Amino acid sequence: MKKAPLLILAGIASMAAACTQTPVTSPANSTVTAEATQPNLSLISADELREDLFTLSSDEMRGKRAGTEDELRAAAWVAEQARAAGLEPAGDDGTYFQFFPIKRTKVTDNSTVAINGKPLILWKNTWVTSPAEINVNAPVVWLNSLADTARQNLQGKVVAMTLQAPSPLPAQGMSLWNYRYVASALRQQTNALKNQKAAAIILVTDKEAESDFGFIGHVFEEGTYQLEGEAARQNTNAPVLLVHSSVAPALKQKNAKLKADIGVDSFVYPSANVVARAPGSDPSLKDEHVLFSGHHDHDGIGAVVDGDSIYNGADDNATVTVALIAIGKAWVQQPGKRSGLFVWHGAEERGLLGSRWYVEHPTVPKESIVAVLNADMIGRNAPDSAALLGSIPPHRNSTELVDMALNANQEFTKFSLDTSWDEASHPEGWYFRSDHLPYARAGIPAIFFTTLLHPDYHTPRDEAEFIDIEKLTRMTRWMYATGWAVSETMKRPATDPDAKLER
């Protein structure tokens, strides 16, 4: 197994230097007292949000992909902003950081695939859909349909056929539609073929798959990620290759043959949560925490779209990263009765890895976390629209927390709320795709603020120039006002006794 490259270790060293700095004290000219019972929304500055947003989502940050020095550089930047805002370090060992190991598994660069002795080019006209050791030298049998499997013995042979459209198709307008189309088609078709005891399966891309294949191919090339120490994902079925339609004629030739020698590399990289704290003002409540949650990573450098290969992640999730900085600064200037805990999670885009790690290794007593206010993408779409996930069953796990958020919106920000994305039947499953989820599964009251998806989601067009700064400011104030209500209420919000997620 290979360890982190030297550039990443250098990034850790620079971050360690930042850890040694002490937090800045509250601004001397603050006119807000600790006895205030209302949130001071004027402490959330649109100009500061804009400045931080354009810095964090600039091309210089290179998309902040988890497991790279770019993510660590972004984490160091976030920690420095937290320090400058006066927040205390609340990570491991008196620092702002909580490092955790993530394991990446990918196909080796020297792997080879050939049809009829002619080499294919990995990640150009052939893709390994799941990293696995593959050594195949076997004849190819072309199938015109799945019905052909009943007419011949395919054991030990390579099955090849065109990728078939999944049933049902992904919902019209669903995010990453082509990726979901390919993923569903692969799953359904390989499930139908897995009992044939074939040596390998080759599926040929159809026109739908090829219409927007850059992102899909990049996902396959990157491989898989998981927390180090988790049980490896075992794939005992025949290996599956996806090939471009231009390869189909070779597969249909008489006596066609596949020769594939594919190896796997595993790497362990550091990722980091950034954790900071603003102490509360009430002696009896300051040991309890209102946790504000977001993630600071994104997709890094990827497939080129319209000449741009940097997936900046301005909305996803720089908007929330800078929002938490602003809320933290406000909490320092006007402390709530309970302490504010701010966790910028790493490696969310690789499978909620940072939040999963923090729930299992909290830097404060887990029982001291009274509520989690998470956000993901809070700066796009219609100016007055938003959503609060976790507000209706089966996703609601604390009616009291939801009521606080709804009351804060009604009193201060007055967004029109879309509840449809919180329904269990919504095709996006958006509730299950952000960092509140591990906390909710741990039984902690949790809600999820968002302004929902848009066509630039997970593309290089998710840039700061398209963010509605006024809306971002209002969403930040809504989160702040909700957290303030949680902080000022003597009774901590209770979990609903019958709360149970559908999956």
List keywords for this structure.
alpha/beta; Aminopeptidase; Glucose Oxidase, domain 1; 2 domains; 10-stranded mixed beta sheet; 8-stranded mixed beta sheet; elongated
Name of the CATH architecture of the largest domain: 3-Layer(aba) Sandwich
How large is the radius of gyration? 25 Å
The counted number of beta strands is 20
What's the overall geometry? elongated
pLDDT averaged residue by residue: 92
The structural class is alpha/beta
Which percent band covers the strand fraction? Answer: 15-25%
Termini gap? 34 Å
The tally of helices reads 12
Indicate the CATH class of the largest domain.
Alpha Beta
**What is the fourth-level CATH superfamily of the largest domain?**
Zn peptidases
Residue share in helix: 25-40%
Q: In the residues, how many domains can be counted?
A: 2
Uncertain residue segments:
1-11, 24-35
Specify the biggest β-sheet. Answer: 10 strands, mixed
Looking at the structure, the CATH topology of the largest domain is: Aminopeptidase
Signal peptide: 1-18
GO molecular function, one term: carboxypeptidase activity
Domain Peptidase M28: 273-480
Protein name: Zn-dependent amino-or carboxypeptidase, M28 family
